[in-house]
Design goal:
By secondary structure, the protein is an all-alpha fold. 70% of the residues lie in helices and 2% in strands. The chain has two domains: 5-66, Homeodomain-like (Arc Repressor Mutant, subunit A, Orthogonal Bundle), CATH 1.10.10.60; 73-201, Tetracycline Repressor, domain 2 (Orthogonal Bundle), CATH 1.10.357. The protein is built from ten helices and two strands; from the N terminus they run ββαααααααααα. Strands 1-2 form a two-stranded antiparallel sheet. The radius of gyration is 19 Å and the shape is globular.
Length: 202
């Protein structure tokens, strides 16, 4: 009889599902190690697959692009972000709502070291920075209908203000992560995020 274990969502996890998760994690760890050792642009998909002990075809079943090997599951990132922000109390301050979303997606990293290396590669690789900007603009659009209703309509048009608020939150995350990497991962990235936001809000 097939054994099941509970997942974080309370649903049963099959042996197939747990095996897939382990394989995915091993591929990600291999990719991150190679990116760190020799650079993102210098590392090939073929090399990652070989070192992880899988075929390139199998690797692409888990991850659609090379960029996904660094950024992780972007669909999961988007889901956690929107679910967290959408689930905040209706009367919560908009900045607190966005902070909760930022904290939730940062918690998706498996470890402190993994987060530091991902951010280091992101901020030091031009192609990754460009890809992140494109994804970030998409995330900002996803959040617009969740944030806009939280703003006071009496103060004027909410759409441009909502865009500005969301963009500010993402910019503060970028600055916080760059500072955190420059300090070799010292301290808490959320403390840096809070300091950036406090500076912007005056």
């Amino acid at each position: 009889m097939e054994q099941h274990a509970a997942t974080g969502t309370g649903a049963p996890s099959t042996l197939w599902h747990r095996t897939r998760q382990l394989a995915s994690r091993e591929i990600l760890e291999t990719a991150l190690r190679l990116f760190t050792e020799q650079g993102y642009d210098e590392t090939t998909i073929a090399q990652i697959a070989r070192e992880a002990g899988v075929s390139q075809r199998t690797l692409f079943r888990y991850f659609g692009t090379k960029e996904d090997l660094l950024g992780g599951d972007q669909d999961r990132f988007r889901q956690v972000l929107t679910d967290t922000i959408g689930g905040q109390p209706a009367d919560a301050d908009v900045w607190d709502v966005l902070r909760a979303g930022v904290a939730a997606v940062l918690a998706l990293h498996d470890s402190h070291e993994q987060a530091r290396e991902r951010f280091r590669l992101l901020h030091s690789t031009a192609s990754l920075r460009a890809g992140w900007l494109e994804k970030r603009l998409g995330f900002q659009e996803d959040l617009l209908p969740l944030v806009e209703p939280r703003l006071d309509a009496a103060a004027g048009s909410t759409t441009p203000r909502a865009r500005a608020v969301i963009a500010t939150a993402f910019t503060c995350l970028d600055v916080a992560s760059m500072t955190w990497v420059a300090d070799d991962g010292a301290g808490d990235i959320m403390d840096l995020y809070d300091a950036c936001l406090a500076a912007v809000r005056g």
